[in-house]
Amino acid sequence: MDRTAQLTARPTDRDIAYDPPPTADSPHVRAAKVLEANWTGASTVPSRGLYPHQWSWDSAFIAIGLRHLSPLRAQTELETLLDAQWGDGRIPHIVFNPSVPLDAYFPSPDFWRSSTAGRTTGAPRTVQTSGIVQPPVHALAAWLVHRADPGLSRARGFLARMYPRLAAWHRYLLHRRDLGGAGLASVVHPWEQGMDNSPCWDAPLSRVTPAPARSFRRADLAHGAPEDRPTDLDYGRYVRLATEYRDRGYVDGPGQFAVEDPAFNALLIASEHALAGIATELGATGTARHARAERLTAALIDRMWDPAREMFLCHDVRSGRLIAERSVAGLIPLLLPTLPRDIATALVRTAHGPHFGLGATTRLAPSYDLLGEAFDPHRYWRGPAWFNTNWLLERGLRTHGERNRADALRAAMLDLAAASDFAEYVDPYTGEACGATGFGWTAALTLDLLHDFEKPRDTKGGSRG
């Protein structure tokens, strides 16, 4: 099996039994209803209440699930997102819906001021976006969406239109975001890595003077328990970093916060392999992209692998040191098909060991070290289990031949997604729902896990908008 195929493979008949036909109250139908309820006509919101706009990596994961319901809608999801791409190649982490009131979410469009503050870096004029980015899952999502209905994809020229945009996105990350000089991408804000409130950010954030609490208004506290959300002090630092980035015109450089994250870079590498598959589909060669992905994998190991902790750690570009915190981000490189066997084996051992307890003390892998001082099973990214990170781990386990462990994780995810009403995240021990329910990527990834991709599917008239 080649590298791109390893990243996109799903279980076969020999791995799992076919799921029964969906009934009215089945997880399949319930998940589909969540995605229908969150659909705006051109994209899918993560949550109608808490997150009423389009989010970048959410849309990538949502498209992966939507491809099983409507390949056309999955393509539209990604096309809508990439229509907001900036001239420098960045894909913004939020595309704002102009029909949503400004006070429904903070930071709102009037905070980011993308069309004015981002003018020199190529922000679009016809749509308002944020100025930061999120993890690059998009090429992997586009490749999976294409494979769901190649005939429709080719007829619409989907990959031919996506490829140059995705290539520009990767160029942006590999060149303008190589702030550490090692060839890897840096994030310049905790929101960019996606795991906003992780204890991994505590040390680098301590250098940032928080914005005064009176200078911003938090809309998130109206939708979740304050004790489960980031503190006002942390939020003040998030606002300060975003304000400074905006005020320098979203020009990349060594600011107060610059971190190389293993999950962010692992997803970039996985998407490089996917771009190689897309190039081949379009009649070009993917050899150079596979080679780049392998070089990036070597750089990731050299820069962030900690043999003593048997996992990857974040690298603080400002201090030049690894951040000694274990988070689920350090397990995500298991997704990579060319990871050396000894490192893959160590990651599996760590995921199932005392720090994450997968399959032993926890039902899903927590977002942070169970034994860490900052662990909290309910506080945002400081301990709860998330479905997207566990979906990535499931694929990683399967990629490296850990079929039984992958099947067990798949079963746990399906059980907890349905039982929690497709919660944003859950207590890793009990599965108790936390955050929003009816959450977009939880429903979408449930559909993906329910669907045996190797089963023949009827593509005649099978795409609906």
Automatic annotation (TrEMBL):
Q: Which residues form the Mannosylglycerate hydrolase MGH1-like glycoside hydrolase domain?
A: 51-442
Check the record and name the Pfam families matching this protein: MGH1-like_GH (PF22422)
Q: Where is this region: Disordered?
A: 1-25
Q: Which GO terms describe its molecular function?
A: Glc3Man9GlcNAc2 oligosaccharide glucosidase activity
Q: Which GO terms describe its biological process?
A: oligosaccharide metabolic process; protein N-linked glycosylation
- Please provide the record's keywords in A-Z order: Glycosidase, Hydrolase
Per its record, how is this protein called by name? Mannosylglycerate hydrolase MGH1-like glycoside hydrolase domain-containing protein
Organism, scientific name? Streptomyces ferrugineus
